[in-house]
Each structure stands twice: as structure tokens, then as C-alpha cells.
Amino acid sequence: MDDVSKARSAVMVGVSVAAMSMLFSAPAVSQVVPSEVETGDNALFSSRVLSSGLSNPWAMRWGPDDMIWVTERTSGEVTRVDPTTGAQQVLLAIDGVYIGPQHEGLLGMALHPELMQGQDNDHVYLSYTINNGSADDPDPTAQIVRYSYDEQLQQLVDPVILIEGLPAWNDHNAGRVVFGPDNMLYYSIGDQGANFGRNQRRENLASTLPTQEEVDDSNWRTYSGKILRLNLDGTIPDDNPELVGVRSHVYSYGHRNPQGLAFGSNGKLYETEHGPATDDELNIIEAGGNYGWPWVAGKMDDSAYLYVNWSEAPDDVNVNAIPVPDTVPQFPESDFDGEIIEPVATYWTVEDGYPIGEICGYICDPTIAPSSVYYYEASEDGIAEWDNSVLIPTLKHGALYVQPLSEDGTEAASAPIAWLSTQNRYRDVIVGPDNRTVFIATDAFGSASQKYGQGLNTSVLHNPGAILTFTYGDDGNVTRFAEAPITVDEAQLASSSTDAPQEWEDPATRSDERPESAAVTTGEADVSVTEDSNIAEVAALGAPKYADSCAMCHGPAGGGGAGAVLAGNKQLDDIQFVANSIVHGFGYMPSFGSQLNDNDIAEISTFIRNSWGNEFGVLTTEQVQTVR
User: How far apart are CA 373 and CA 281, in angstroms?
Assistant: First the structure.
């Protein structure tokens, strides 16, 4: 195999997603939603795994060579995938890409419309993060770089940095790059997770606009939470909107984590973004528009969202305090007196009092985690059921939400319909030139809705780091897809079913012989962990449970990976934070409260709080009970 080919298990022609994904014919638990969601007729599609072994495929584009061009976030590679055989060829491996668990790495990609057309525009535009600091003290930024395709070498060469120093951090970097019909580049930047989770004390700049001095100095710090519009050389277009007297790259603002960005054939720029614990959004981007974040989530309705500005909270206030102290600035949405552009649709808006975080952590919260967006027209030979809609792949639900649009494409014509659901995290979607073959890229790791067994969330993905193919009207392999989403009421009232396939069942034999690594203790232990317990003894009990439930993401030695680094982590000194994170989930970490009893959690917590350079003492069973 030559140096531009990958020695991977890349070709899986004819392997059905049903076989690869353990999609059985027995009833399945599915994602939780606030109200019923219609499921499409998946029997209309055949399916297979096209290609696997990809390092978190992030952006897909159909190339002029009739190949799928894909960025791999964690390997920093641009790879070309044959849409028939699944064979992979590396076109570029970038040195110096800064990689993180979820949001850093090689992200967006746009192909020049004249690529490989003999017009001297053989350009590919990539966005990725770099580290200007050290491994121990990172200082990441993002940049957009133009590469040229050398057809003889079949490689991307001659990088030219178009813009650098763009905001980046360990969360919400967004990073989509699209080529506009106006011959401009559009780029989405998230709010870096400011005022949220591990970045709760960072100032959120999504609604802050750049000053003229900052623009003159190429200081792009306020580009957080924005959609940018750039000339092809990275400069500011003369016709960009002038906001508070300043013209910059900023095209729209007030965005949280806009990971979806795509033009429709109608010329409209569609965008999807992640909401907090409610109100994921579908937007149409307008020049100069304010989309509300962080003052407003979804529509300005004062429903289940309050802007709590932790960056202005007193230093002595615990960020985990419940309820939030009055000394922390708090604003209902109706307090915002500016104009905003409301979303075309939200997923989902709920009333105050909804059990956010109480069902299975963030996976069961009323959001879908929209990772991309794709405008679709069926024309004569396409997928008639999807005509005039946007396709929204989802990370949490492992489903493709098809959102029907009004005739002019400016409104949601009805509620979305869930299609092609599997136990995966769907990262991006494209449709082949036949307009009937759908390609979906999946994350290599992370949490998602559990579709089989008794749980509601899981870190077991059935097709990690893959491209799945679904062909409309094909008589090939017909997948038994997961069942329709269940409502929150159904989730709360659901009883255990011994008929449902389990995470540990063999997909071929349905054998119920459970491997040791899947064992989970659910009954109460005989002895509670107390303040007088011996640290070493409790940690010894917690070690194998950590290996079973936590090491996959946090590493066997606490070195991190998909999850946070635990070794030498001073935040573990906060007992409430540790217990609350394990019981209720935190950020991308799922809730384990329904899988582990209080003693299990106390033992695991004590283990991680006293390993790998940590010396924080016992976390007791009673302290776990308190956070429940």
C-alpha cells in the first residue's frame, strides 16, 4: 500500500448497518423527547457501512472527482473515500493541529466550485485549531487555511493562512466553512462554552461586537459566537454589514455553538446551533442579524431559560450552588430590550419545571444536539418524502431529523420527522449526485441515546468513526432501525423489559453471557462509605468500578481522552462537583445515577480523588445521597 493510502479496515461493502449496529427486531428503548416525534418509513432505505476506522470524521463534501472528501478531526487528515467501495486515501495530514476531546482539531472544509475544472482554482479551504501555548498551559486559536490540490501527486499542497488568531477553546468552537453563491467564505464560531460547564466563569462574548481599534489591530477576540463572511483571501468584504459603526468579518452574532451551516438552492443560509439544556435552533442567517444568545435561548418566551451571568458573580460564590444565589446577575429573556431574529424552529422549547437533568442527564434533556444541516430538494428522482426540507443530523439521538419547510423556505411547515435512527452520534450528512443515496458520518466516541436495553444513555456506539450509506428505493439490506423517540412521561414511567436486547448481547447469537467488563452493581452494598472509612480500602473497591465505568473516556491512569483529565485535577477537591457530575452528568459526560448506587459512586469518587497525584480524601455515601 502506497504512502497516500490507509492501512485500515476501510472496505465493508455489503455489510448492513443492521449487523454492525446490533439492530434487532425486539423492542428498543429510544431517545427521550418532550412530545411525540413522528418516525419516517425507514423500510424505504437499504443500508450498509461504507467505510470505518475514521478518526472522528467531521465535515464531508462531494468532490468533483465523484469521491467523498472528509476531514478527520482528531488525526488532522483530509481523506478521500470511494462512495462505492469505501476505500480511503489520505490527501493531507496536517502537522500541528491542536486536538481536544470534542471541539478542537481539524474541523470545517469547503471546496472551491472550480476545483479540478482547469480554471486555476484548485483550492480547498480548511479550518483547524492550533496551540500557541504549551501542553500544560494551552492557548488555542483557530485559523482558516487555503490548500491547493495537486492532481499529479493527488495531494493537498501549498498552504496559505487566510486568517489566524480566531477564538478557540476547549468547548463550542463550531468551525463550519461553506462557500457561498456570492463567491465568499462563511465560517461559524461558537462561544467557546463561556458561562457554561467547566468555563462557567469565562465572559460570554457572543453578543459583544468588535471595536474599530480591535479590527485595525486584527484582534478577533469578539468573534466568539459569530458567523463570519470573508473574501477568498481572508480580508473583510466591502459590503459586510456595519454594526455599531464598525465593518468587520462579522456577518451575524448572538450564536451559541453553530455547528450547522449550509446554503440552499434558494440562496438562503441555513444554520443549526446547540442550545443550553433546551432550544436547539434552526435559523436563517441574515446580514447583521442578532440571534439572541446568551440573553435569549430559542424564542423570547421566558420558558425554562434564565441568563445567569457567572462571569460577574462574586468570587466566593460556588458555581454549583442550587438555587443560584441572588448575588449572581440573573436575567429573564424578556429583560433583553434589543431586536433579535427568532429561529425558524426550536428543538425543543419546554415550560418551566421540566425535569432538566433529572431523567438521564443531558442526553435526556429537551435538545437533539444538531451537528450539521443540509438543504434538500427531491426534484423528479429524489426522496419524495424529504422534498423541500433541511436534513439535521443529531449527536444525542443518532437520528436524521428531516425538517419540512414552507414553499419559500422561510418557515417550518410542520414538526420534524426522525429517520434512519441507530445507536451512534451523527456528525455530518451529504446526499450523492443521484439524489437518493445518503451518507452519514459518525463520531468515534461520545455519549448518545441508548437504543437497546434498559438504559437511556450510553457511551457504546455501534458504528464509531464510520460513514454509513442509506439508499432510497434499493432492494438491498433493509435495516431494522431503532423505534420512535419516547416522551419524557414515557421515560419516567417506563418499566424494565427483559425482552429488550442488552448492550452486552452478541449481535449474531443473541447470547446473554455477560462479559465481566459489563458488570454493573445496582444493589446497595452492605457497608456505607463514611468519613471514618479507610481511604486505601475504599479506593481499592472503587478501582475496578472505575475501570468498568470510567476508564474508556478518562483513561486507565486518569490521563483523559474523550473525557477530562483526572490526574492532578484540583477540581476534584470539590466534593459536590464530583458527586453531582457522576450522578447527574456534566457537559458531554452522561449521568451514571441510574446505573450506579450511592456506594459505587462514593467508592469511584474516592478512588479518583486519591489517585494519580490527587490527595483529597474520602467522598462518603451520604454526600452522594445529598446530591441525588
Answer: 11
> Alpha carbon of 592 to those of 155, 195, 358, 595, 611: distances in Å?
45, 24, 11, 5, 21
- DSSP code at position 571: G
Q: What is the pLDDT of residues 36-77, one digit of tens each?
A: 999 999 999 999 999 999 999 999 999 999 999 999 999 999
Rounded Cα distance between 112 and 124, Å, is 6
Residue 13 to residue 212: CA distance in whole angstroms: 55
**What gap in Å lies between CA 443 and CA 62, rounded to an integer?**
19
- Burial label for 209, CB within 10 Å (0-12, 13-18, 19+), is middle
Contacts of 518 (CB under 8 A, 6+ apart): 503, 504, 548
Residue whose C-alpha cell reads 473497591 in the numeric block: 541
Pairing of strands 400-404, 68-72: unpaired
**47 SS3 class:** strand
Nearest partner of 425 among 375, 463, 471, 480, judged by Cα: 463
**Contact criterion met (CB below 8 Å) for 368 and 394:** yes
Quote the cell numbers at residue 90. Answer: 489520505
Cα torsion for 110, 115, 116, 117, to the nearest 10°?
A: 150
Judged against a pLDDT cut of 90, whether residue 101 lies above it is answered with no
Scanning 249-327, the segments in alpha helix (DSSP H) are none
Amino acid identity for residue 29 in this structure: V
Q: Is 281 exposed, middle or buried (0-12, 13-18, 19+ CB in 10 A)?
A: buried
Q: In angstroms, what CA-CA distances link 433 with 65, 66, 390, 436, 547?
A: 12, 8, 17, 8, 46
C-alpha cell at 529: 462509605
**Predicted confidence (pLDDT) per residue in 568-627, tens digit:** 988 899 998 899 889 877 655 667 876 789 999 999 999 999 999 999 999 999 999 988
Element spanning 551, H or E: helix 551-554
Residue 554 annotated to the active site = no
Alpha carbons 238 and 511: distance in angstroms, whole number: 65
Q: One of 103, 112, 123, 172 is an active-site residue; which one?
A: 172
